Sequence to fold (106 residues):
Amino acid sequence: MGEPVTVVESPSSRHGVVRFETNRNFTGMGHERYVVDTEVVGDRPPDAIARLLFDTGKVSKVHVYAQTITVTLDQGADSSGLADLLRDLYIHYKPGVRVPVPEDFA
Fold:
């Protein structure tokens, strides 16, 4: 269940920086900035994105503005797999995960 996010990855003019353009607006008109090893507070979509990207161990900074996610990679890291994480952001039931039935909530 859920719908995949469309993600287009493009390199930045700065080495080690990658931009992801999506079909979802995560912040409205606000900018959200995150730095690794700084607690990400909140449960809004940009907060979840930052946590998800930091958990890979490849990312040192995340900036989210509307539908654009800009990622600064750790030195020597590559962006492989990051776009897939973003695509699956709203997929809640993946293969092998049991889908709840009404009886589960009774």
Summary: The CA atoms of residues 33 and 63 lie 5 Å apart. The chain has one domain: 7-93. The chain has a mean pLDDT of 91.
